[in-house]
Write a structure and sequence with these properties.
Layout lengths: L1 H21 L4 E11 L5 H15 L9 E6 L6 E7 L5 H18 L3 E8 L2 E6 L13 E4 L8 H20 L7 E8 L5 E8 L5 H13 L1 H5 L5 E4 L3 E6 L6 H7 L20 H45 L7 H4 L3 H6 L10 H20 L1
């Protein structure tokens, strides 16, 4: 039991040491343009000192998202500056990095007015000209991992290009004022994963951020083909990829925005389940109703056919009748029939019927003559 507790404690210390090391502000590179300089104890130097102090004091504010910019003084002694902390670092680590950068800036670039300092965890920049919300890729710095990829290097290059582009798309989709920062991990083989990171200063527009990062990615094939890792550092943005986990995945997971809600579609109607007893009753009821209806339809059809056939026979019997048994009413509607049978045998008819027959035959003949 004691050995287990010791082992857990040792793992915790090792994890803490790893996290602490990853939060160290390691210096990477500086750019000190000596085209414009200032003199000691000048107004510009006084304004610069005030600006650096303001940047350090604002590095732990909760609403800054690891970014802050400010301006002090009037032309020609105005100074403009900003800091940008890596998107996965804590507020304390951000402040420590900014404080170190502010201290070392005047040591590394003692009289220069245009200065950019890159650290592993932050960027510090100041100038005598306003540069906020402007995309700058000059000066640019490329740092390359000395290790090469020996196994399937071309496939690795393609994976780097695809992954970096996907990471840029994720970073540039951030809402206004949020961190323009994204990381991604992808599988290469059973021994290696690929880790990528991109970031812009939040004051850039989405289009400028996208353009800055795409330019940085486009430089990778010429400088870093088959390399296990590389960084491209610009004043307005930076990119990096490695085959080891170099960022704080826990912090990234906590700060990642929730995925968009899924599209809700109306569910398809499902059959309502009923007790078996009720189903049986319903089936019996349907059969009991359907059978009489079916029988009624059959009987109706049979009756209709019977009546129709009977009516046809009656008409045929009338045509074949010699007139003896025709009623008086039928005489008045069969002029053509009467003419056709003018010479029918005249059995014993009543006087009235005989007169009617003679008169109707005479009328029918006259009618035909007119036609």
């Amino acid at each position: 039991m004691k050995s287990l507790i010791f082992f857990v404690a040792l793992l915790s210390l090792l994890s803490l040491a790893t996290i602490t090391k990853s939060q160290d502000a390691t210096f990477l590179y500086d750019s000190c343009t000596n085209e414009t300089t200032y003199t000691s104890n000048s107004t510009y130097q006084a304004n610069l000192n005030l600006l650096l102090s303001s940047l350090v004091s604002n590095a732990t504010r909760n609403n800054l998202n690891g970014f802050y910019n400010s301006s002090l003084g009037l032309d020609p002694d105005d100074v403009h500056g900003l800091f940008l902390c890596r998107g996965d670092v804590s507020k304390n680590a951000c402040q420590n990095c900014v404080a170190l950068a502010a201290k070392e800036a005047t040591q590394r670039c003692p009289v220069e007015k245009v200065v950019v300092l890159w650290y592993d965890l932050c960027l510090l920049r100041y100038s005598n000209r306003a540069f906020f919300s402007t995309m700058d890729q000059d000066p640019g710095v490329t740092l390359v991992n000395t290790q090469n990829i020996a196994y399937e290097p071309e496939r690795f290059n393609r994976l780097v290009a695809t992954t970096m582009n996907d990471t840029v798309t994720q970073a540039t989709s951030a809402t206004s004022g949020a961190k323009k920062f994204a990381v991604k991990q992808v599988y290469f083989n059973e021994f290696l994963n690929l880790y990528s990171l991109v970031q812009c200063t939040p004051d850039l527009s989405t289009s400028d951020c996208n353009r800055c990062l795409r330019i940085a990615i486009s430089s990778l094939p010429s400088c870093c083909s088959q390399r296990a890792g590389a960084r491209v550092l610009y004043p307005s943005c930076n990119i990096r990829y490695e085959t080891y986990e170099f960022y704080n995945t826990t912090a990234v997971a906590l700060e990642s925005p929730p995925p968009p809600p899924p599209v809700i579609r109306a569910p398809l109607p499902s059959p309502v389940s009923k007790p078996k007893g009720k189903d049986r009753v319903s089936t019996v009821l349907i059969v009991a109703i359907s059978i009489p209806i079916g029988v009624s339809i059959v009987l109706f059809c049979m009756g209709f056919c019977f009546l129709r056939r009977r009516g046809r026979k009656n008409r045929e019997s009338v045509e074949e009748n010699d007139g003896e048994n025709l009623p008086d009413a039928q005489f008045s509607s069969l002029s053509q029939y009467v003419l056709k049978n003018e010479n029918w045998p005249a059995p014993a008819l009543s006087v009235e019927k005989e007169e009617a027959r003679t008169t109707y035959i005479t009328f029918s003949k006259r009618e035909l003559k007119h036609k």
